[in-house]
Amino acid sequence: MKTMQGPALYLAQFAGDEAPFNSWDNITKWAAECGYKGVQIPAWDGRIFDLTKAASSRAYCEELVGVAAANGIQITELATHLQGQLVAVHPAYDAAFDGFAPAELQGNPKARQAWAVEQMKLAITASYNLGITAHATFSGALAWPFLYPWPQRPAGLVEEAFDELARRWRPILDHAETMGVDLCYEIHPGEDLHDGETFEMFLDRVDQHPRANMLYDPSHYVLQCLDYLDNLDIYGERIKMFHVKDAEFNPTGRQGVYGGYQSWVNRAGRFRSLGDGQVDFGAVFSKLAAQDFDGWAVVEWECALKHPEDGAREGAAFVRDHIIRVTERAFDDFAGAEADRASNRRMLGLEV
């Protein structure tokens, strides 16, 4: 068996304009001080990372790795959630997602989508240059506005959306295969890949592509009332990344899964800092250990109540306490005896 790596921290919620969050050196020092051994980089944030340079310069990548190592930190993965979102955007969300793209591309969905595909390929190449074999992203969404089947969906609408989604992602997945990098889609509401059924629909259309994998985050399943432990049993072989994030779902007589357009604080389902929600992380870490998951346990802090720096520090200790250092021998080895086929057959009353 293999032991999971960690704790690590996703930096998307922490990179900022003020110290210690405003430079690669500062933020990795801060992460180490919080108790982390690794960080996951948001590939769009120029304050701490230059994606174009990382895709073209091994020397730049070596510098990044060296600065992090000097601070006691490893780079675990790159993440392209914003770029991946823009690979597929339904027109209803054009204005909402335009801010994810450079100013000169806003208002031009076709150019924005081409930019997103190129960004994905750059990020995969940068992962290769950094010696990283897993990469986090979103799938984007064309069918999401039609999630609820009212008004009645025309026959073939969802199938057409997934055919197009696969067509857009196939060249990116093929590039990932060339680079030896797994694309790990975060299964997430707002994406066309938001549960197991939709992930399988996509897999079918990309011919079970070996680089199409999952980022497992149980918090998104709690908010969908999906069995997040059974999900591990079903998709264990495709789960290549792990976000450690907590959530709670407390339905009332006024609201349930859809949340009644309320703020995060007032929703029945909301994200919480680690240990403050309802996820059974003892069971999650046990299942992953049994499945030989040897990737990183990456804290993604999102909470409507707690201060992020408190959540980050508590999260490092939480993950450290939950990682199972797997055993190298069976607990009952002391009672074992030498065995061979002949003695086994004798024990069964069979002829030797």
Write the layout of secondary structure elements.
Layout: E1 5-10, H1 24-34, E2 38-42, H2 51-56, H3 58-70, E3 74-80, H4 81-85, H5 94-97, H6 109-130, E4 134-137, H7 157-179, E5 182-186, H8 196-205, E6 212-216, H9 218-222, H10 228-235, E7 239-244, E8 246-249, E9 269-272, H11 281-290, E10 296-299, H12 308-322, H13 341-347
Helix pairs in contact: 6-7, 7-8, 10-11
Q: Supply the CATH superfamily name.
A: Divalent-metal-dependent TIM barrel enzymes
Shape: globular
> Separation of termini?
34 Å
Number of helices: 13
- Radius of gyration from the CA trace? 22 Å
* Main sheet specs: 8 strands, parallel, barrel
**CATH topology-level name:** TIM Barrel
- Provide the helix percentage: 25-40%
Mean pLDDT score: 96
Side-by-side strand order of the widest sheet: 1-2-3-4-5-6-7-10
Proportion of strand residues: 5-15%
H/E element order: EHEHHEHHHEHEHEHHEEEHEHH
Q: Which architecture would the CATH scheme give at its second level?
A: Alpha-Beta Barrel
Low-confidence stretches: none
Class per helix and strand makeup:
alpha/beta
Task: Give the number of domains.
Answer: 1
CATH class: Alpha Beta
Overview of this structure, please?
This protein has a single domain (5-347), classed as Divalent-metal-dependent TIM barrel enzymes (TIM Barrel, Alpha-Beta Barrel), CATH 3.20.20. It contains 13 helices and ten strands. It has helices spanning 24-34, 51-56, 58-70, 81-85, 94-97, 109-130, 157-179, 196-205, 218-222, 228-235, 281-290, 308-322, 341-347, and strands at 5-10, 38-42, 74-80, 134-137, 182-186, 212-216, 239-244, 246-249, 269-272, 296-299. An eight-stranded parallel β-barrel has the order 1-2-3-4-5-6-7-10, surrounded by five helices. Strands 8-9 form a two-stranded antiparallel sheet.
